[in-house]
Amino acid sequence: MTWLITGGTGYIGAHVARAMVAAGERVVVLDDVSSGFPERLPAGVPLVRASVQDRDVVDATLAEHGVTGVIHLAAKKQVGESVEQPLTYYRENVHGLTVLLEAVAAAGVRRFVLSSSAAVYGMPDVDLVTEDTPCVPMNPYGETKLAGEWLVRATGRAHGISTACLRYFNVAGAAAPELADVGVFNIIPMMFEKVTAGEPPLIFGDDYDTPDGTCVRDYIHVEDLADAHLAAARWLTAQDGSRDLTLNVGTGQGVSVREMADLVLGVSGRRDLTPVVEPRRAGDPARVVASCERATRELGWRARHGIDAMVGSAWEGWCRRHPEARGVAGEGARSA
Ligand SMILES: NC(=O)c1ccc[n+]([C@@H]2O[C@H](COP(=O)([O-])OP(=O)(O)OC[C@H]3O[C@@H](n4cnc5c(N)ncnc54)[C@H](O)[C@@H]3O)[C@@H](O)[C@H]2O)c1
């Protein structure tokens, strides 16, 4: 097998490339480097700098590298931006996927893995979200992920391609500081940003129907997520004829926003700061925690890392890019 990883210079894609190479798989990466960093790639992995929307380059890459399976991570991923720029999100995440699938079907590639998201579920009103929980996305980003799943499954059935759609929950942590996420769009880096500025982390709403009143989420270490891709790739390789699999990838454990604030204050040495409670934000579900039974049953995969490892490794990555964060922590610890 040779696996094409689209978006392989991104935060998650680079971890997937690393896990695949470590497991002895042959990989090639196609990435337009719009939000990725080539230096994240393991040594020796070929990088084709192009958009998945460039059909000629995709065709040539599949042929030249003898690609037999695709792991498609290339996408835009910011919920707020998707509300302001839905056309960009549909073009990148849905049209881009269509072009890629056309090339895959034409080349006779028989294995395809799609990066999907818990955003497809919207505001699930259940204790544990299973893959059968209704999908009601609340924003264009989630819509493009759900439409992407439909496209992948329909194409798989029509063209004899085995497919896996992996619905990631909240991805966190890093295998090494230089592989960390650089965005400040979710709770952990947003809290890191606050404490680095010497300010308390913010909690949006503490009157939800949850044990401590704050929202509860399921965080998955990016290394565990990368292993789930490897397991899915191996599962697809083992199938005779076309099969499709849709899987949640999380831990099944909920962590509240207040618990997360405590973890961030601990790792940053800023226990002198007290989180500030702000009003609820529109569209935040109270609790989104995955049931991961299907992934364990089908792939034999389960998450190994806990929340401390996620926050600790994310902090190391943050401090690499924000060396002042360690200084601020030192000052906080001295003045506390
Ligand atoms: N980070 C999360 O918490 C999370 C959660 C659920 C799902 N996802 C999905 O995981 C995937 C990867 O996310 P990430 O966090 O690594 O984001 P990222 O922005 O770090 O990585 C995306 C990569 O895709 C590349 N890319 C974007 N558009 C492209 C195009 N048209 N052609 C070729 N390359 C292109 C970018 O340069 C980047 O390297 C995305 O599909 C995202 O929707 C992420």
TrEMBL record:
Q: Does the keyword Transcription regulation apply?
A: no
The cofactors required by this protein are: NAD(+)
Catalytic activity of the protein: UDP-alpha-D-glucose = UDP-alpha-D-galactose
Q: In which pathway does it act?
A: Carbohydrate metabolism; galactose metabolism
Keyword Phosphoprotein, does the record have it? no
The Enzyme Commission number assigned here is 5.1.3.2
| Protein keywords | Carbohydrate metabolism, Isomerase, NAD
What residues does the Ketoreductase domain cover? 1-132
Q: Which family does it belong to?
A: Belongs to the NAD(P)-dependent epimerase/dehydratase family.
Q: What is this protein called?
A: UDP-glucose 4-epimerase
- The organism is Streptomyces olivaceiscleroticus
The record lists the lineage as: Bacteria, Bacillati, Actinomycetota, Actinomycetes, Kitasatosporales
